[in-house]
Amino acid sequence: MSTKTYLDAIHDAMWEEMERLPTMVVLGEDIQEGGVFRATDGMLAKFGKDRVLDTPLAESSIVGIAIGMAQNGCVPVAEIQFADFAFPAFNQIISEAAKWRYRSNNAWGCPIVVRMPYGAGIRGGMYHSQSIEALLAHVPGLKVVAPSTPHDAKGMLKAAIRDPDPVVYFEHKKAYRALKDELPDDDYVVPIAPAQVRREGGDLTVISYGFMVHECLQAAEELAGDGVESTVLDLRTLAPLDRTAILDAARRTGKVLIVHEANLTGGIGGEVAAIIAEHAFDDLDAPIRRLAAPDVPAMPFSGAQEDACLPSKETIAAAMRDLAAY
Amino acid sequence: MAIQAKGLEAPVEPDQRLRMYRDMLVARELSDRMFTLNRQGRAAFAITGQGHEAVQVAAAHAVRPGVDWILPYYRDVAMMIALGMKPRDILLGLFAKADDPNSGGRQMPCHWSWPEMRVVTRSSVIAANLPHAAGIAYASKLRGLDEVTLVSFGEGATSEGDFHESVNFAAIHQLPVVFLCENNGYAISESSEKQMAVKHVADRAKGYGIIGQTVDGNDLIAAHQTLSWGVGECRRGRGPVLIEAKTYRFSPHTSSDDDRRYRPREEVEEWAKRDPIDRFRTRLQGEGALTPDDDRALRDTVKREIAEAVAGAEAAPDCDPADTARYVYFEGDSAQQRGAG
Ligand SMILES: Cc1ncc(C[n+]2csc(CCOP(=O)(O)OP(=O)(O)O)c2C)c(N)n1
Ligand SMILES: [Mg+2]
Predict the structure, then answer these.
(1) Which residues are near ligand 2, the ion (C-beta closer than 5 Å)?
(2) Most Cβ neighbours (<10 Å): which of B30, B209, B236, B259?
(3) pTM here?
């Protein structure tokens, strides 16, 4: 076991896969320098400029070239420097990668990984803080993951690289250095799809993903001090959703709060709530609640306004108390 | 058109010439039939490339089938015929039948995919497959494989960002990509003056530090020479190249379009005099390679073959609605896990 940050975990997953797969290529902007977050640190020296590829500043082609590489025996992992800048690549992700297998009636596959640093809480302003995962989770043909721990970050990135279909991998910028885990030294993967119960308690369930899971866990600890025991379910994979785990937790506790830092409308929370309402309505003891960023276009640079957007341990705990008392 | 062919390295044998001629006839007859089938209400949609046959057949003969990668676009009926796709297979796509080899009835007709021939699946999104060509070629180079990638598109496609991004990337890495623009002067109704301030698409090559070459796309031999030169440059490590074939479409944009609204009839008639099939026939006859009798017999045969293919394809089984949700993701069966390479 070794102590690793969330960022180390991502770096090591790529590094180990690069060692194992001679045609794996990491590509993106400033990758050779190690990337703006240093996720590809040291790779240029170890694997060379052809496999650690600095691309022009052109996101559509970063993904499009990755798609092409994957057709011809390479294993591409594309980095979009910030998820906020993924929109020029949406055509490649949605019209091309997601539909590749379906439109060719299974004649072709599109095994690419697109890494996207996302999320707020780092004073990144409107264009370095967005959580765009719901936009992509809406698209069949894509797998969308958002690991919350270093352990999962490493195991799920390896799973993504080994997956036969396109995977969008959301890595939370605030988690990079804030989170540390003891990680096994041996190769392991964390499969895409299953959610993970992070904490068990019978009074209510909080469902979240990404960095918010940690805020939820802290809030759950606080409530436990008052005798309210909660389950915290970490979705981990946002598409396809682990319906079984969602419904199990909802049924067991009868009360559900969903938390994400993406804005409310059309968010993952709406889909999770709909799944529960459709299939576990009879088991509910309270209306499903959602806590999310308000519907503003993006997080302001102002710290005061950014904080006002983000769910926090305090606002989550308050929502949980309300729900527990219902 | 006073545009020179490039290169002298592509002799075309007499048999090959006759095959090229036949393939153009097949493509033309098939395409005309697809429009008719649409007008008769038997096919929901048609998109074809009457007028583009010469450059398309030339392209198919310039590459090494099954070795080089091909990313064609919806007009490339003649390219696919020349690569060996059967009219029946194209018609299965027209009728959206279960056995349509291009997409199993999921895509509009003429959205090609043929893994064995390294013809890569394409969407309807203009220019979106140009980055794929660049990525495939990057992989060829990385893996040390002697492969060329040919990607075709219209002049309208060159306005898209993906055109710029792909040519730029291929140029930076000197990738073996032939960017083939079939310039028919229109993107639906928009004439090329609305797409670009330069006269020739090939002029854009300068901005990327690569060679651009314009050729008469209705002259099969000139187009074949130029494309063979382009493929050769790529194999010699001097790619990418941008080849612009000047041509014209004789059909509306699609079966849903009425080109009389935006194209003067005199212009269409003027181009009809430069029909690539007529020109090649005249050439073959001048060389004594084709007698008028042989030509008539050949055309009758082609007509009959297409009529039979239509009957067969139309009677083929439809898609099963129960399969609608299949192949969204890998299903762990014998299918391709990675790309076909
Ligand atoms: C991105 C995108 N925008 C618009 C369309 C609709 N559309 C289909 S073909 C076409 C014109 C293409 O013109 P050009 O590239 O010159 O090829 P041509 O059809 O003339 O051969 C347009 C606008 C599309 N398919 N994709
Ligand atoms: Mg055009």
Answers:
(1) B 154-156, 184, 187
(2) B30
(3) 0.97
